[in-house]
Amino acid sequence: MAKQPQRPAPQPQRKAAPAPARRSSESRESIFTAADRTLIFGRQNFMLMGIGLALVLVGLALMTGGAMPDPAKWEPERIYSPMRITVAPILMVAGFVVVVMGIFKKSASETPNDQSATEA
Q1: Phi-psi bin for 74: left (phi > 0), alpha (psi -120 to 50), beta?
Q2: What is the 3-state secondary structure (H, E, C) of the chain?
Q3: What values do phi and psi take at 53, rounded to 5?
Q4: pLDDT on residue 44
């Protein structure tokens, strides 16, 4: 039998110092808040984004259509119906446009800081 090499003795491990507690007065910025702790998007923005999402979901539902009454029979008028190939994609594109409008629309709560410069 061959001798196995001796393993080095384990080193004593240091315990890490605990992390300092965060003070409640410290502010933590988020992508959803601005410096004054308000939401970036207003109510109207969220409404537009929700309406756009609903339009996209309705377009997807219309595109799937219904089940074939007889799976063994091919019915091209059901597969290639105007509802599936024109109306549903138009609704989806309209939904995406409404979502983009909701993202880029300025909310009513935002007011310019210096209104006197625009009045003069």
Answers
A1: beta
A2: CCCCCCCCCCCCCCCCCCCCCCCCCCCCCCCCECCCCCECCCHHHHHHHHHHHHHHHHHHHHHHCCCCCCCCCCCHHHHCCHHHHHHHHHHHHHHHHHHHHHHHCCCCCCCCCCCHHHHC
A3: -65, -40
A4: 93
Residues of the chain scoring pLDDT < 50 = 114, 116-117, 120
Give the pLDDT of residue 114. Answer: 46
Quick one: tokens of 88?
Answer: 């549903």
Residues in the chain: 120
pLDDT number for residue 36: 63
Q: What is the pTM of this model?
A: 0.59
The gap from C-alpha 4 to its chain's centroid, in whole angstroms, comes to 58
The pLDDT, as a whole number, for residue 101 is 96
